[in-house]
Amino acid sequence: MSDYVEITLNVNGRDRTALVPPRVTLVDCLRDMLRLTGTHVGCEHGICGACSVLFDGEPIRSCLMFAVQAQGHEIRTVEGLAAADGGISDLQDSFWECHAMQCGYCTPGMLVASHALLEENPNPTDDDIREAISGNLCRCTGYQQIVEAVKMTARRRRETSNG
Amino acid sequence: MADTPTLPNYRYVSRKRRTKEDRRFITGRGKFVADVDVPGMKHVAILPSPHPRANIRSIDASAALALPGVHYVLTGDEIAEGTNSLFHGLDLPNVKWYPLAVGMTRYAGEWVAAVVADSRYIAEDAAELIEVDYESLPAAVDSEKIIDEDQPLVHPEHGTNVLFRNTWTWGPVADDFASVPHTVSYRARWGRSSTVPIETFGVVAKWDDINEIMDVWASIQMPQYQDQIAGALRIPMNNVRVHNDVDVGGSYGVKRGIKHTVLVTYLAKKLGYPVRFIEDRLDNMSGGDAHGPDRIFDITMAFDDEGVIKSMKIRALDDVGAYPGRAPLQLGKPMTALCGPYRVNSIEYEAISVTSNKTGQVPVRGFGQSPTNFAIETGIERVAKHLGMDRVEVRARNLVRKDEFPWKIPPGSRYDSGDFHAVLDMALKSADWNALIARRDTLRAEGKLAGVGIATCLEPGGGNNIFEYLFNPKLKITTFVESVLIKVEPTGAITAVMCTTTSGQGHETLVSTIAGEELERDPDTIRVTHGDTLEALPTRSPVASRMAIVLGTATSKAAREIKDKMITIAAYDLGVDKDRIEYADGEFSVRGEPSRKLAWEEVTHIAHKQFHRMPPGHELGLQAYAVQQVPGGGQMPDENNEVPLYPCFSFQAHVPLVEIDPATGKVTVHDYFIAHDCGTAINPDIVRGMIIGGVAHGIGAALYEKFEYDGDGQLLAGTFVDYLLPSAHEIPPVADFEHCTPSPLTSLGQKGSGEGGYLGAPAAIASAVNDALAPLGIEINELPIRARDIEAAIFEKSNEN
User: Fold this and answer.
1) What 3-state DSSP class applies to B190?
2) Which residues 118-137 on chain A approach chain B with CB closer than 8 angstroms?
């Protein structure tokens, strides 16, 4: 049997402790041990982006990292993207408004990638958005309604800050 | 804009409305199969065969079983003893199919053993410790060699690698060919691509031996799933409970999973604890339900000087891989629209299905229609080229005209409705065809290769798979039902129970929108559940672009029955005849006496709680169900093998502009315009999403995606590094324009829309690429047209010159 290692991660603002074999990936730790099943597994070789989470604010593939490597770091998953009041965020709301999904499987990863983009670039062009989500595969939508949702979020934020 | 007929002023249908499903997906609260946590469940990993074809001399699992945490290793001999062979669409008694290889492996990636362990990690470790002694054998790989030469037999007991071969002739083909001066013959080839959902297949099973219930949670989109589980396990069908409330992470046809499910349910029953198998991507691409049609078309079209096509001869040779399942029937569905949207007088169709040492083919979006559309459209381009005519004009001359519906095609389908010319015109105007050609020419003047594509195509919707009988006389199945149960609680709250899974099509939105429209209640207040298979009414699952048509019509019927029952109750209580009751906005009032009325909640209260106010003999409670047959279906083929197949026909015209880098062959799709008519769109955002997503899927099939094999039968594209799915970079903005010709056959005029983008895009992209390559004298009619294929063709041409 593998030896177990105790790790502590800050997940969605809370310190969480898990006992993991060293070879367990971060995504398996999040899903199977911390029961945060919003983050999905698509390819386990770093292409599809379904397992994207924010790692100290940066979007990463949680299938390509061992959980032990995340010791002491801040992880944010789709479950942690809610607005400050606990309701859905403006980005999530725009995804809903634009129907930026169908089956919903890639959606958490898309939200993570889009969230990171908007943190860095509040006024992205269509090309910026496509670049930001180009590491996240979606088989349902053809990406367009996702691009529209990200644009809508940026526009709403501008309107709110100007208003 | 084209002259769309005046449509009813719906309050919810066709309106911009948020979907019911999205809320759980944006919050990470979807319930996918890998999220199902059954206490005590063990995990399965698979050992695949490295050989395309080999005898299995022995399997030694002792080292695997000795690993701590490993519970069991299952091999083919045991499961072949303990279960029945899996179902094939064709009548193939000597083609046995089990979840694991029995005695012989028939493709690289075929599952040879399954390990059950405490975790997937341990199960994978153990799988690597299993020793298999193989005798590697030469493989049958090339479908053309398979029909022309002696090749190794994939299933020796069957005696041949040809699983099916038949020619049908509908109408006076020979006379029609003799009556016109021109023919063109060509080959079009569709590469082995598929739908490749981002979620792999997974299944969890739990056997309760006291109650004798097999609970199954699966990422499934399949007709007759529970029937086949029960059949394989030799247990009654009412011992199988499939939980239809599992969210399915994409399917587009492929999520069949029957061998996975039989494997896991067998293990759960034998071992006495819950068992789960979630494919990893490698399992999925080499040995799962991954591959789609792999088809060679040889076609001759006969036409006159005006470009009017009189007749067609089509030969389709399809390689279904090692285990056919339902795959050969994908040669049958295209009979539904075998000549596309064109007025062809007669057709000869030869369908050949061969088995090979490749991963088995499964149903893919459109069930064979997309390859066929591509092949037909290639012919239209050829006719135009032959006559030196404009390719848009050739299409316009052959399209069925608006006043000709219902239009019967030679194999028997009746196209229900449409205005093909208006939609084509809408696409050309929206794209500004002449300006697009001018842009193409500007790019060409700059030294680029550039092309404009055009494709028109039909999307048959609704199911009604009587073509199956033409492939297997044992399949006399003339229903393709879908059902819904609607009930209204004493408080007035409405719940609709649908009977199958959803894999992104938004059925909860569909049902709640239509029920809300019919009952004039806010769809957001209507709950839609997915009944499990022991509770649910008959279903054939969400395949065949059929749910808006069949589930939608069922919902209207059940809702109308609810309304009728409520009117009956209100009339009795108000002491008037039923025909004097008017219903609007949740109130039942007496016509002409608006003060005499009952609110929605009063009537539902009466129905459930106040027997003394109920009409004598009237059913208590408020519930109605509808089991909906496919409209227009139900007949067997006649003596000429003619039979009406799918009922409703959506139509689209696609216009892309592409640029090709002459140095690398890389294709960039700059613009994409589509005009589309699926009758009444129940939710416009859902329809638009499926259209654009389908176009993206079609761009993948046209330019990138192929399960490539080498000559020995080794799969060369088993990861996302080799099998290329288009990203947001490869898919251009798609401009979608909607026309509406309501279907006369459905409750609100709705038709299917789940397959349409995918059915037309490959043909449109091929048209654009070939337009770009035309100045070089190059034509490529084999999909996918990858950068390296274009580069090679350009290189070859320059050597010729």
Assistant:
1) strand
2) 126, 129-131, 133-137
Residue type, B588: F
Q: Where are the beta strands (DSSP E) in B620-666?
A: 622-628, 648-660
**Best CA proximity match to B537, nearest among B555, B523, B519:** B555
Question: Are the C-beta atoms of residues B628 and B611 closer than 8 Å to each other?
Answer: no
From A95, A133, A139, residue closest to B197, measured CB to CB: A139
Whether chain A has a CB inside 8 Å of the CB on B204: the answer is no
Residue B416 near residue B405 (C-beta atoms within 8 A): yes
Strands B734-739 and B667-677: parallel
Residue B32 DSSP label: B
SS (H, E, C) B224-250: CHHHHHHHHHCCCHHHEEECCCCECCC
Distance CA B72, CA A40 (A): 28
- 3-class state of residue B505 by DSSP: coil
What is the C-alpha separation between A44 and B284, in angstroms, rounded?
Answer: 12
Q: How close A162 gets to chain B, by Cα (Å)?
A: 27
Q: Which residues pair with B42 in a beta bridge?
A: B275
Distances (CA, A) of A121 to A54, A83, B657: 16, 19, 30
Low-confidence ranges of chain B (pLDDT < 70): 1-7
Gap between the Cα atoms of B480 and B463, Å rounded: 6
> What is the pLDDT at residue A161?
85
User: Are the Cβ atoms of B22 and A95 closer than 8 angstroms?
Assistant: yes
Write out the two tokens for A118: 């908007």
* Residue spans of alpha helices (H) in B390-476: 391-398, 420-431, 433-445, 467-471
Neighbours of B473 (CB within 10 A): 9
Task: Quickly list DSSP for B755-784.
Answer: SHHHHHHHHHHHHHHHHHHGGGT----EES
Q: Is B595:B505 a contact under the CB 8 Å cutoff?
A: no
The answer to whether B248 touches B219, Cβ cutoff 8 Å, is yes
Angle at which helix B600-609 crosses helix B552-574, to 10 degrees, equals 80
- Phi, psi for residue B795 in degrees, rounded to 5: -65, -45
The whole-number pLDDT of residue B2 equals 43
Distance, CA of B753 to CA of B680 (rounded, Å):
10
Alpha-carbon separation of residue B622 from A106, B69, B573, B793 (angstroms): 40, 53, 16, 67
B248 to chain A, minimum CA–CA distance in Å? 7
What are the helix (H) ranges across B520-639? 552-574, 600-609
Farthest CA pair distance, chain A: 60
DSSP A66: B
Q: Is A143 on the interface with B (CB under 8 A)?
A: yes
Which among B622, B87, B108 has a CA at the least distance from the CA of B326? B87
Nearest to B734 among A48, A105, A144 (CB): A144
Report how many Cβ contacts below 8 Å link chain A to chain B.
Answer: 185
Element (H, E) at A96: helix A90-97
pTM: 0.97
pLDDT at B464: 85
ipTM over 0.95: yes
Tally Cβ neighbours within 10 Å of residue B442: 11
Digit-coded pLDDT (tens) for B333-343: 999 999 999 99
- The pLDDT tens digits of the residues spanning A105-158 come to 999 999 999 999 999 999 999 999 999 999 999 999 999 999 999 999 999 999
- Whole-angstrom distance, CA of residue B304 vs CA of residue B212: 67
Name the E strands within B41-123.
42-48, 54-60, 70-75, 104-105, 111-117
Residue B202 token pair: 């997974």
For B93-113, the pLDDT digits (tens) are 999 999 999 999 999 999 999
Q: Residue B574: its pLDDT value, please?
A: 98
In sequence order, the β-bridge partners of residue B588 are B583, B598
**Nearest CA-CA partner of B753 in B674, B668, B651:** B651
